[in-house]
Amino acid sequence: MGVDGRLRAVVGLAQAMAAANAPRDSVRAAARGARVALDGSFAAISAWERERGRLRVLVNEGERRPGEVEFPEDESYPVHDFPEITEFLHERWAGGGGPHAWVENAVGDRPGRRGEALRRRGRGTCVVAPVVLSGRAWGELYVARDEGLPDFDEDDAEFATVLAAVVAAGLAQNERLEEARRLAFTDPLTGLANRRAVDMRLDEALEEHRRTGVVVSLVVCDLNGLKKVNDTLGHAMGDRLLERFGSVLSLCGAILPGALVARLGGDEFCLVGVGPTADEVVRVTEEVCARAAELELGEGVACGVASTGDPIGLVKSSRRLFRLADAAQYKAKAARSAKPVVAGRDTAVVRLADAAAEAASGERRRFRGRP
């Protein structure tokens, strides 16, 4: 591949990583781009797990051998098996610099562990390029060719060093995007999902409900006594109460497969269940109420449940589900109920929600100048 071809390959690799929608897609694009750029048969990207002292393989791309899967669950290798990389793992590099790639062959004076692995898998040569992120060793880019193909040379190693730098830039950009996405859909205090995430999940779930009839449930929780804690013990203790209840709700929500647990704001939390029956959701909510009552702070929680698995009428939008769950929660709070109130099983709740919706509709009509 000539200079122009290599330049196009570098640009293509960067563009493919930038177009990836998820971290997994990004590392696959990086491995594929590097393999093509170096005219390799196989490529892998591994991350260094410092706490385990191992290189964990994130993706295997190209002509895989038996036992090599595209996205391995736990394919990793002790760092001490590869002494050639220990020189750079604990170093720091400034200004974007870093260690250079090197070539290893199945046949040579120093085949080492990689040479043994090349022979075992029918490959003849490989180039290994350290990936440096934020001045620290992040992992490595590995590209190999099958037996019978030309060995990599020093020019290939220099080019692999460039490719590893492009991969590092793509990984850094993806990390920033993932962090931005996380912040956009996460409550900063509790680490739970936020209202934006709930709205998106409910819209998707109700669309699925219309198509397949899957049960969609919403639990709305209102902490009792948060203001009193804030006023008497300070806001730091109030934040602690919010965090601890968030943990309780998350722990109980984990009983329901795929449940989304969120803080809506202030002292309001919610849980979205898609699939489990209404009875299962109610049982989990009862557990939430019981555990919240045992917290050393606050005065328990008021919970309302609305589920398409109960007789609540047609649910065309998340707004109606929220109205029903809110009305149930208001009734639980007014009655100081130690258990959740469930819309549909308490017909007064449905009437209350429908009356609130009608009142809101009347307000809109008056605002628009109609009687």
Please give a structural write-up.
The chain has helices at residues 3-19, 23-37, 86-89, 112-120, 154-184, 195-212, 226-233, 235-253, 278-293, 318-334, 347-367, and strands spanning 42-49, 54-62, 76-78, 102-105, 123-133, 136-146, 216-223, 260-265, 268-274, 301-307, 341-342. It is of the alpha+beta class and 371 residues long. Helix 7 (226-233) runs antiparallel to helix 8 and helix 10 (318-334) crosses helix 11 (347-367).
Estimate what percentage of residues fall within beta strands: 15-25%
From the spread of the alpha carbons, the general shape counts as elongated
**What do the pLDDT scores average to?**
86
Number of strands: 11
Work out the radius of gyration: 28 Å
Poorly predicted residue ranges? 363-371
Please provide a brief summary of the model.
The protein has helices spanning 3-19, 23-37, 86-89, 112-120, 154-184, 195-212, 226-233, 235-253, 278-293, 318-334, 347-367; strands spanning 42-49, 54-62, 76-78, 102-105, 123-133, 136-146, 216-223, 260-265, 268-274, 301-307, 341-342.
Describe the secondary structure blueprint for this structure:
Layout: H1 3-19, H2 23-37, E1 42-49, E2 54-62, E3 76-78, H3 86-89, E4 102-105, H4 112-120, E5 123-133, E6 136-146, H5 154-184, H6 195-212, E7 216-223, H7 226-233, H8 235-253, E8 260-265, E9 268-274, H9 278-293, E10 301-307, H10 318-334, E11 341-342, H11 347-367
Helix pairs in contact: 1-2, 1-5, 2-5, 7-8, 8-9, 10-11
